[in-house]
Amino acid sequence: MKIDFAKLQYQYQLYKTELDEAIHKVLDNSNYIMGNEVRELEGNLQSFTGAKHAISCSSGTDALLLAMMALDIQPDDEIITTPFTFIATAETIAFLGAKPVFVDIDEKTYNIDASKIEEKITSKTKAIMPVSLYGQPADMDAIEAIAKKHNLKVIVDGAQSFGSTFNGVTDSNLGDISTTSFFPAKPLGCFGDGGAVFTNNDALAEKIKSLRVHGQSKRYHHQYIGMGGRMDTLQCAIVDVKLKHYKKDLALRQEVASKYDKLLKDKGLILPFVDTKATSAYAQYSVRVKNRDAVQANLKEKGIPTAVHYPMPLHLQEAFEYLGYKKGDFPISEAVSSEIMSLPMNPYLSEDEVGYVCSSFLK
Known about the structure:
Elements: H1 8-14, H2 16-29, H3 36-49, E1 53-57, H4 60-70, E2 78-81, H5 88-95, E3 99-102, E4 125-129, H6 140-150, E5 153-157, E6 165-166, E7 169-170, E8 177-181, E9 195-199, H7 202-211, E10 216-218, E11 221-222, H8 233-244, H9 246-264, E12 278-279, E13 285-288, H10 292-301, H11 331-339, E14 340-343, H12 351-359
Parallel strand pairs: 2-3, 2-4, 4-5, 5-8
Antiparallel strand pairs: 1-9, 6-7, 6-12, 8-9, 10-11, 13-14
């Protein structure tokens, strides 16, 4: 048996008629930038999440940039975040000249350890940026309490977690600003790059809308230094079709995760842990193994692809050497990065496929 990690072609064929129709409608109208489908998607994202404002943009990375620009993050400001994430989280902070300040992760959820945040707050700290890793929000009760106490903003990096919840609230309604990514392999993906920014603050929403079109208040009148951060009409049309089916696909992801949980419980692995306050979108199903290279090689021989999210925490990356961190500074992140391994995860994995993956692990 050969397993498809994300089954993107399968999903296209599943929704092909609707997707092709939506794509050809955009082609027929030839309104490729800020066409009607952009507004339609944003309205449907608002309805789905309950967020007052959903603003589409060019990628999950640009969503983070827009969020920080809207909050007027300046050079030398500090933003507290996690070193165990994709580089875009901290890269965008550094791109604006601000300083990423890392905090180690919780060993169960792999999200930022909220109990370690307060000790890193200084007079330069302006925001906390938790990441909803693998699809599960961080401990937002604790993070929001710390932010309120110290008058800080909260930007949620929800690139992997669209549709997840914390205390029954969708991840797009967490923090001052929440972001997501529509990269093709994400739970809700387009056919290229795309993302969105969510907020319930009217002033922030208007500023973000302006910033994504070069800071324009009206054509060729620029109130801010902005960026070309629009999501094109074609990608919005594609995501809008997929959004109609997303509740079902999200439920299927959770069913696949439950099957994995049941069949892998006696295999000597550390399985994903989801907090009782949260639900996960299961962007990844990631397990920890001591002999990762050997396990990956064994699975590869059997036609089972795996991935490592992520093999090196950010504080040890060459790009962040200037921050002065060293090996041993964040021991949990370092330990997890040496053991973590993601198994195939998508809504369309059959019972036989999940069974084959699980039976392929050596006892």
